[in-house]
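We emphasize that the prediction below concerns an isolated chain of 449 residues; any contacts that depend on oligomerization or on bound cofactors are therefore not represented. The input was used exactly as deposited, without trimming of termini.
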Amino acid sequence: MNTSLTEAFKRYIEDHNLVSHNDKILLTVSGGVDSMVMLSLFTRCGYNVGVAHCNFQLRGAESDEDEVLVGEQCRKYGVTCYNRRFDTTGEMERTGESMEMAARRLRYAWFDDLCRQHGYTAIAVAHHADDSIETFFINLLRGTGLRGLTGISVHNGKVFRPLMFASRKDILEYAILHHLPFREDSSNRSTKYLRNKIRLGLLPRIREINSKFTGLMRRNIARLTDAQLFINHGIERIREEAVDIDGDIETIRLEKIDPAFPRNFVIYELLSSAYGFKGDVCDSLCHAIDTCATGKKFYSRDRVAYVDRNTIVVAPIPTDDICLSTVESGAARSYCGNSALYYEYLDIDTIKNFGVPENIAQLDLDKLSYPLTLRRWQEGDWFIPFGMTGRKKVSDFLIDHKVSAAEKQRQFVLLSGDDIVWLVGRRIDDRYRLTSQTENVLRITKEII
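Result of the prediction step, given as a token string:
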């Protein structure tokens, strides 16, 4: 495809009616090979474009060198280049967001501003077929359901992805053929990220089995996307019949769901698409319905749902709600705010690193009493921070570590009985640390979702 990538690019845009030559298109260009090829293709095809480059100031000199390269290439093409530097680290500290979430919010807010100020009608992002396939496997491993297996959308509002027809190999070959300069983010080689583990480890093995894997997966994802669109249409019809809305409180009336439909699947689709509830949270809620557990609460990032007789009531989380949930023995994961906790049950002999980053807790499993409790911290909470011998109030710990007010509101604790065993994402309790007597380990990893 490499020698005819330009023609394939034109056909893809026309076949999917993504943009026309009357549109003014803002290209998001990082300096990596994908976005530099996208810039080349749009200019070669005569579209009216400008370029937006974000410097998140997270990689020191690397970030600055990316900025210089994009500016030089834009001058070569005679294309307007907008550049902005973001205090991403400061924003993460202010909001408590992950690096990925903070950077995404910052850049898309800026892109929207550029569109309003300069009349851009569309925003082009350089995701390609391999990115979509990697997303498929990430979501498959996380159990996100059918919606997560539809990969990356081609078009979403003003944002479109004109390289979704091309593989990473096609793009790289085009860049080499046309002597395009580009830069590689050094983090792309790190296997500490799940996406890179899939990209560098899993997918090359699959391609050894089937060399046509990329094209096959493109077709599979297209079929899954069609299936999800069909389901979405059906769910919206059910929502019109079964959901009552009163201000910001919505009530799902279970008796209005056709008994011929798979009830639990319908509930999952209603709760996940509109309110962001995860699959295993929906499973637990459906179990509560089956066991008549009226009043038990279930949480998404900003919503709480509970069973009330033959209804499910969904409302914003009140500011004074401690978001209490339980973690049963053997649980694979649970959720707290905008984070997921993943649980691994290990033998001490498999533990290679006793010094772990703050988003990981390694606890003596045999000292824990199940079920564990997960909730927001409260005034009066205390624990014995790892490495210390005396009690410390959680409030004092957060003050000492200069935790912002916004982050404090999102701080969770994990308890065994009445003991806090982990100030989530910050420090374990010294009483539950690994020792020479430890035999079994609970390893917990916090990931932003």
